[in-house]
Amino acid sequence: MTDFLQMRGIGKRFGATIALNCVDLGVAEGEVHALVGENGSGKSTLMRILAGAIRADDGTMTLGGEPYNPKNPADGRKAGVAMIHQELSIAGHLPIVDNVLLGMEEARFGIIKRTEAKRRVKAALARLGQEDLDLEVPAQQFPLAVRQLIEIARAVAVGSRVVVLDEPTSSLTEADVQQLFDVVKKLRSDGHAVLYISHFLDELHELADRMTVLRDGQLVGTRSMDGVTDETIVTMMVGRGIEEMYPRSVRHPSEVVLDVKSLAGYTRPDDASFSLYRGEVLGIAGLNGSGRSELLRTLFGLDPIKSGDVQLGVYQGPASPARRWAEGMGLLSENRKEEGLALNLSIADNITFTTLPRGVVNPARINQSSQTWIERLGIRCQGPEQRVGDLSGGNQQKVAIARMLHHGVDVLMLDEPTRGIDVGSKEGIYRLIDEAALSGKAILMVSSYLPELLGTCDRIAVMRKGVLGKPRRVEEVDQESLMHEAVGA
Questions:
Q1: pLDDT tens digits, residue range 363-394?
Q2: What CATH code would you report for 3-240?
Q3: pLDDT over 70 at 46, yes or no
Q4: Residues 6 or more apart whose Cβ sits within 8 Å of residue 84
Q5: CATH class of segment(s) 256-487
Q6: Which residues pair with 129 in a beta bridge?
Q7: Range(s) within the chain of domains with CATH label 3.40.50.300
Q8: How far apart are CA 210 and CA 78, in angstroms?
Q9: DSSP letters spanning 188-224
Q10: Fewer Cβ atoms within 10 A, N terminus or C terminus of the chain?
């Protein structure tokens, strides 16, 4: 297999920090090549060099046998390299046709050739199986999955030969994920060289022909995906086996901390009953849209209760989020960037938000308290005053968990606690969950990833169409039985 894209001996330093050290990467035409590694492994730096956002200190690159050395992202796009970021760069107020050709329109005497533009865009969308989209509708009126396809169509319309997809499924529903997979396979069959970055191992098995693994800025290896096991991938990524991924101590659940009977919200849930014990982890499985997140939001007071009964310790009935904090309940939102954290504020501010005293605030004391949690949870940062938005996803999640532990809540409700973070960071989150349960906390955990629930929980209940099933001990279930219950088979 001849590589269309070749990156050889790539090195990059930021001051005294070595971000990349002599990394090689090659991708052939008609190949989906997975780039794998923990946050901080060097994946983003390598892709920024490929896209032209930064310059490498060492090494060379070629495209189709010709030297490739982009001075900026525009240079990269002209040479045929398209980068589809996790955070999409769509102009929502503009129609599809303008988004696809933005900055690359054909014009005559300063007037854009609208008919030709529509023809080019329609042809690009047709190659992706999306020829029926209305090109004059503003992009913001389409769901996230379609907006993502608009970005991919942009790469196809301008003739990009190398397409980089960075965590493309992190915010998609299961149906949208399958649609994206079909598009990626079309790109491969059309001869594109596709670089695919994902933390989901099942996606690598589904799509990738080969994978390259980075760890701590260095190349661990490149190999075919044929016959590769999850154990092999995890060991290459983090240097330890998958059996160590789910630390679970011997737990001894005691009294009931949260008792829920026939709970219903105005949207969802429709009917949920369960008891949560001190010292246990209760998992909630189910398909997207089943009402899992709504259950947690209703319990926390973000969504109103329609009927049913909630007893939290000695407190009974509905409550506001502020009152839930006071009663000893905390919620980790699945959307940490918009709901879970104040990204522009410091780590110290985010950890101590809910416990700040009235009147004069002592910054030194706040920083000291936060430093304790930084050390206990192993948050990788420059210090308590660093901006949360500058941290990796895994460390941001640790900050959100630190807030609940600092507040001293008895019930931790975790909604997709490892979404969008790498394998190594996930292991750190699982260890925190285990330690919290061992210390007597009660944990209610929603996750779309069944192995995660099976590896961390004591009991699991399945939600289907707003109705929560009976919790069962983890020893009594497996992935197949949970999925059967989730789909009603």
A1: 888 899 899 999 988 898 999 999 999 988 88
A2: 3.40.50.300
A3: yes
A4: 148, 151, 152, 155, 163, 164, 165, 166, 168
A5: alpha beta
A6: none
A7: 3-240, 256-487
A8: 26
A9: HHTT-EEEEE-S-HHHHHHH-SEEEEEETTEEEEEEE
A10: C
